[in-house]
Amino acid sequence: MPLTHTKDLFAKALKGKYALGAFNVNNMELLQAIIEACEEEKAPVMLQISKGARSYANPVYLKKLIEAAVSLSTIPIAIHLDHGDTFELCKDCIDEGFTSVMIDGSHLSFEKNVEICNKVVEYAHKHNCVVEGELGELVGAQFDEGEEGGGYSAGGHYTHPEEAVKFVQLTKVDSLAIAIGNSHGAYKFKGEQHLDLERLKSIKLALSENGLGDYPLVLHGASSVPADLVAEINKYGGNLGNDTAGVPEADIEIARRVGCTKVNIDTDLRLAYTAGVRKVLAENPKEFDPRKYNTAARNSVKNLVRHKVKNVLCSSGHAFD
Ligand code: G3H
Ligand code: 13P
Ligand code: ZN
From the CA of 284, how far away is ligand 2's center (Å)? Predict the structure, then answer.
């Protein structure tokens, strides 16, 4: 089956009220694990490539690996640039046939963010590619301690509903990544902190009330950092500390129901992969065949992805809608 366009995946996900898993790909085993899991679950999927993945694996290797995955599978697959930081990087990916790109200007002023999004959107839309923008900064709830209301501050970390409307109207981005207390990595929260799901509802409502319809929102930093994977890594020689924390899967489910159409997961894949490798090497200190520990890693990632698409994102069974 050929690549499926991101805009078609979004349209179906919005209609079917499920979320698309956007999983980061850095090597062959991760890709195989994601595709095998989604194929078995009959789930449409977005594969995302970061700038770091491109420099680790080389863009040509990644592209050929994904071509192989697409040709060997039957499910709809889209390719997305994760956290593009320049127009040039976005342009390269658009020219290479990515079905969507993210231009991440979230660290810039509102005006500069609009400016760079405009430039990418103009080029992307001419070349049949859709664009994800980001408004608000993903610094995580832990950095906002003490701010009034735990949210919108002079620093502007959290996305403000009215600014989101203005941003989408000015840039014409096709989807928007929002900051509601989410952050990347394995140390997201302290204590009882959560995502600001009320803010998410307000953003979704403001977009709809201002004529932008059932607008697709994107949740970055959506790994849940499963305690069993952290324990497994530490049991077999890791040292991840006891302050790891992810987004509870119940929060992701609410975010999906409220309207996060694309949910980004990378850290959980890394944890699953590492747990698989560590277990094989710790239990078999004489082992030095990468196929042995990479098989364990691939199986571990595959189980994780199956769980996410089935029980959290509810995209299972929607591949052929
Ligand atoms: O949001 C960031 C993703 O987890 C990609 O991470 O830039 O280390 O590839 P990376
Ligand atoms: P996690 O670090 O929570 O997996 O987030 C990944 C992400 O947002 C990729 O863009
Ligand atoms: Zn991200």
Answer: 32
